[in-house]
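Q: I'm teaching a short session on how sequence maps to structure, and I want students to see two examples side by side rather than one. Could you give me a first protein with its sequence written out and its structure tokens following it? Keep the formatting plain so it prints cleanly on a handout.
A: Of course. Example one:
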Amino acid sequence: MTYARLKKMASGLLVGDNKLPKDPEEVLALLEMAYIYITDKCQVLNLQTLDKSADVQRLGRGNYVVRMPDLPVKDTDELDIDTELGPVVASLISSYISVKKTAVHQTRADEGIRNYNAKVDELIESLPKLQGEES
């Protein structure tokens, strides 16, 4: 998902409520808040690294660390998270801005995180089985 698409999605979620800020730095700050929340709550596959010099947010599984996602520079940049988490980020940003539906947006984000983590756990648990089948 591109940064522009994320902003459109968040704007759509906020229809009839507060609007997404016009200041690009404010939107980036909200995205950074959402990224921090996601890296604390998710086993984001593309953010796990063995590179201890990365901007480490926390320890991951095994020897891995979870790095902070890079913030986009322009609207055409792809978000530095797994595609499935784009709507979660949009919901988090909306929860930070909304007056009328804060809990709805937060609940949607948390549900998306739970679903994502369940899929990742299932994938990781199946890896030894998959590797064993190849032998």
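Q: Perfect. Now a second example for contrast.
A: Example two:
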Amino acid sequence: MTKNTDWWPSTRTGQLEMAKKWVEVLAEHGNSWNILKDIMRNFEDLVQAAENALHDVQNENANTTVAKTKCGEVFDQMTAAARDIKRWFFHSPPLKDYELVMLGLKPRDRKATPSGTPTAQAIAETFLKGVAQMGVNVVYRTGSHDDPANKVFRVYYVVRTQGEKAPQSPGEFTHSFPAKRRESTIQFDFTDSGKVCYLIVQIENGKKKGPWGPISSALIP
């Protein structure tokens, strides 16, 4: 049996209760919402069939494998019809909040989701890709992985010759690229082969920046 926990009840009794409420509301408002009469009539027939099928399943004398199978099929058809009505007639033009409440649906959430400041730290781990190529994976070091504010990274890097002083602050990193928690590749000039690449990661959420992670380094192949 198809379920949609966002708006469609998870139990058959709950589905039937909502569907019967829809039949009542559509009988009064369906025409003004431009729902075709054939669609409303078909939905009403499916609701009645679902109610009858559920009654048979709940009746000990009629509770057979055939009755259970029929009940499941009818409820699937009713669910599909309800989803189609919601998709095609409740969204364009959108119903008003009080109309959604009449149907047992939640009004739209018009409050903007707050965007937090990143709090996690991450480090760039490197691996061999090819000549003058370096693979990069971003790995969390601290903070909550589940916080949506901690999902987008920017990897900064700079190339130095061996023996040259390593960078001491983020301002010394001259190149950067955005990354998510998946493999990225840095393509260097062939003349950079044998030099050292230093990397540092900062998590971003729009204009909000998180703390800098530790500096890592690797020899450019």
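Q: What should students look for in example two?
A: Point them to this: Residues 12-102 form one domain. Also worth mentioning: The two ends are 56 Å apart (CA to CA).
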